[in-house]
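Tokens in:
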């Protein structure tokens, strides 16, 4: 199996993860999701669809002392997640199951944070020749309504749900969240200044009562267009991607937690 794998550096070499050389490969999305989570020492985190463990292990690298559980239904990815956990000398339990069939050990817990990077596209948009792992990772077979319902049920009171997704799916996600979570904050993500945001991060709170907030875009690259092959990330993005820093959500004035 090692012949079909790569061991890649994340967070500037603070973390090395095995993942398939072909098919779905974790990248900046998982790192940004991890950076967005406002977890603290001793808290409990559930990762729905954890893949090879990228987001959770990036989070655990930044915030020590977390109790993390992950759910993944693809056998090969579960094996890689467990390998990555062991080789990183971290503590995290990964269960091979779907999000609709959480094991008793998870159902007995309430979590301070639930994180998710759901598939971006509807299943009828997939390519027939797509690698099975990649197809499962990016082609939606479980509705966003189910993802939100499961996350909400597992959250402790005042707990937070964090998700990264494509902008065109924002209406679907907001519809799913309505009546389930509150205090919604949306962080658009754009490649460059002046360009449309193709991705967004969303944070929502169980029992939250604050008004919905749409923040200014998080700009990834310097300049308004790609001009050379060298890395062009903005300094604050380099801090996240290479130094493992957290993403700072804008402070709320007179918020109701």
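Residues out:
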């Amino acid at each position: 199996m090692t012949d079909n794998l790569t061991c890649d550096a994340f967070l500037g070499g603070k973390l090395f993860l095995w993942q398939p050389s072909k098919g779905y490969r974790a990248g900046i999305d998982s790192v940004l999701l991890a950076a967005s989570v406002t977890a603290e020492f001793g808290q409990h985190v559930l990762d729905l669809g954890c893949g090879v463990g990228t987001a959770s292990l990036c989070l655990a690298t930044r915030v020590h002392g977390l109790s993390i559980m992950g759910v993944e239904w693809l056998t090969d990815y579960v094996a890689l997640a467990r390998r990555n956990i062991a080789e990183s000398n971290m503590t995290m339990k990964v269960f091979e199951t779907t999000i609709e069939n959480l094991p008793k050990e998870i159902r007995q817990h309430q979590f301070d944070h639930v994180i998710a990077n759901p598939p971006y596209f509807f299943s009828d948009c997939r390519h027939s020749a797509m690698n099975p792992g990649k197809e499962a990772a990016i082609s939606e077979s479980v509705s966003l309504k189910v993802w939100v319902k499961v996350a909400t049920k597992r959250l402790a009171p005042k707990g937070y749900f964090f998700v990264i997704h494509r902008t065109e799916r924002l209406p679907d996600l907001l519809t799913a969240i309505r009546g389930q979570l509150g205090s919604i904050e949306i962080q658009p993500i754009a490649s460059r200044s002046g360009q449309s945001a193709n991705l967004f991060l969303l944070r929502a709170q169980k029992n939250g009562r604050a008004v919905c907030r749409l923040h200014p875009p998080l700009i990834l690259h310097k300049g308004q267009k790609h001009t050379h092959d060298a890395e062009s990330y903005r300094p604050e993005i380099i801090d996240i991607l290479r130094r493992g820093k957290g993403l700072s959500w804008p402070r709320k004035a007179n918020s109701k937690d």
